[in-house]
Amino acid sequence: MSRVVLGVSGGIAAYKACEVLRRLREAGHDVTVVPTENALRFVGETTFAALSGRPVASDVFTEASSIPHVRLGREADLVVVAPATADLLARQAAGRADDLLTNVLLTATCPVLVCPAMHTEMWLHPATQHNVSVLRDRGVVVLDPASGRLAGADSGVGRLPEPAEIVGVAESLLSPDVAARVSSRDLTGLHVVVSAGGTHEEIDPVRYIGNASSGRMGVEIARAASLRGARVTLVAAHLEVLPPSSVEVRTVVSTGDLATVMADAAAAADVVVMAAAPADFTPRSTSGTKIKKSGDEGLSLDLVQTPDVLAGLTRTRPPGQTIVGFAAETIDDEAALVSAGRAKLALKGADLLVVNDVSDGKVFGMPDTSVLVLDAAGVRDRVAAGKAVVAHRLLDAVLQHRATAT
Ligand code: CTP
């Protein structure tokens, strides 16, 4: 069980902290809520105390015996601040210690995740942006706010990301390997394009050919790259998971659409990851109306092959671009898997290929996976872990490849 401190500062999104708290508790973490005095104008202390099952204090003097301000930060495995107002960011960046939350932030030696939420003007103000970059330079993980509805009639960038996303990132930071990589922001300056999910090939207005991909692996790669500072475009076919709020999302339906959008998105990218599961076959023609049953007759579909998106991208790639492919195989013998992977790597012209055995429902939609990362020389890495960890290890391989290729 991990010890998490959930800091809450005084913005309208403070009510969403209750959902973050509930999810952290459900995931089995021991959570102490430290609201600022203003946060308590939005959500009552009783709510936080009831949901966390622990006493709640805002200043260093209340409950001083049960909530020692130094120990709380020092003993935490993770500190999450959601929402973080412009004022909280300013106080944290300045190293102030004028309430319990800023005391915790000054004494914490664990990973710190800060989730800003505020009006667009406040977020974009040079003072706030400066504070964010000061915090990031110190290794604090600052989640980019989402775009969308803000308080009142406003809309724009500044929305608190969904609680599920905050908790997903928070939990990944409990892995020291992930936390170190995210803090380093070692993908800053790179544009990464990731495709994810399964394409749908339309048969008629109500039917399609699809596949079992949930898009989870591609979404985790997009999230990991964004957390490490890259500008990320996610080309999303059918996804069963939410895309990260900090990335640009371009949606596609069919493999044909995917080919068009990837060619455009990848034209100036530094790194391209083809994690999507494109349908390999599509109906030769699509019926404009619903195909009706006729007696007890079956139906034959005339299918044609779709374009190979990955092979097309490697043929037209700009200089210096790194291209990663995936290979889902139903081979459980490692030597045979490696040799099939190496053949596919060469055939498609990718720099790296992530190979996994998907037989027996082992991978699709699951939180964990087991992969081999291949390059032209052979097996570069072998990882069996949660998809967030696998995503970070793959990005390490991409950076290593780029370092040796230049
Ligand atoms: N891929 C692609 N376009 C397709 C099919 C696959 O770009 N029409 C990409 C996938 O995104 C993946 C890689 O090619 O990165 C390998 O996909 P996989 O399904 O394993 O290979 P296929 O080329 O479909 O070969 P096969 O199914 O015959 O093994």
Describe this structure in words.
Helix 1 runs parallel beside helix 2 (45-52) and helix 1 (16-26) crosses helix 8. The protein folds into two domains: 3-174, Flavin prenyltransferase-like (Rossmann fold); 186-288 and 300-405, CoaB-like (Rossmann fold), CATH 3.40.50. With 406 residues, the protein is of the alpha/beta class. Helices cover 36% and strands 24% of the residues. The protein has helices at 16-26, 45-52, 69-75, 86-94, 100-107, 120-124, 126-137, 163-173, 176-184, 216-227, 255-266, 309-315, 334-348, 387-405; strands at residues 3-8, 30-35, 78-84, 112-116, 141-142, 146-149, 155-159, 191-196, 201-204, 207-209, 231-236, 248-251, 271-274, 281-283, 303-305, 322-329, 352-357, 368-375, 378-386. It has 14 helices and 19 strands. It is globular, with a radius of gyration of 24 Å. Helix 1 (16-26) links the parallel strand 1 and strand 2. The protein has an eight-stranded mixed sheet, with helices on both faces. Cytidine-5'-triphosphate binds next to helix 12 and strand 16.
Q: What coarse outline follows from CA principal-axis ratios? A: globular
**What percent of residues adopt helix (DSSP H or I)?**
25-40%
Q: How much of the residues is beta strand, in percent?
A: 15-25%
CATH architecture of the largest domain: 3-Layer(aba) Sandwich
Structural class by SSE content? alpha/beta
Gyration radius, rounded: 24 Å
CATH topology term of the largest domain: Rossmann fold
- Number of H- or I-type helical stretches: 14
Overall pLDDT score: 94
Let me know the CATH homologous superfamily of the largest domain.
CoaB-like
What is the CATH class of the largest domain?
A: Alpha Beta
